[in-house]
């Protein structure tokens, strides 16, 4: 039981140590744009997470925005933003079930990883076109990321023994498909605006790659 409780913390600590690579802090210190994007996305995402819908058995829903953050800052920086957002959520709102490590793994690591893997696969196998970038990398990836995050959190809560699977299915997972389109729409709109007006904010987008080709 002790090992089961400690395992998410061990995994989360290893992920954060890998995310904080040697060049991260010099980059954060020397790049004014990266500073604004890193702390700005942290503040905006924490604000959006605060608008959560609580349902039965202490479960709650909220938008994630990790897809947009991953496309903006890259995978490693998105993990650190996610860690900060989960920390702020834990301090000011709190978790009814699970702990910081479980929510970080489910609601930050999983959606960021799904987004980045999808981006890498699409980049190498599909035409490099702005429509492909926006529709698949932002819209579709955001919907799948939310689905995977909710399933991962449900499994962690079930593993912890706080709720049984019937409670999780009826009060949590059965509602998840209703949230996938709004999450996709929110991320798709955000990325579309950045592609049009601020392409330099997107670490994964380049005019030379997606427009000139």
Automatic annotation (TrEMBL):
One of its GO terms (biological process) is transition metal ion transport. It comes from Idiomarina tyrosinivorans. It holds the Pfam family CbiM. It is a multi-pass membrane protein. The chain crosses the membrane at residues 6-25, 37-55, 61-92, 104-122, 134-159, 171-197. Keywords: Cell membrane, Membrane, Transmembrane, Transmembrane helix, Transport. This is Uncharacterized protein. The keyword Ribonucleoprotein does not apply. It is found in: Cell membrane. It comes from the Bacteria. Its main location: membrane. GO terms for cellular component: plasma membrane.
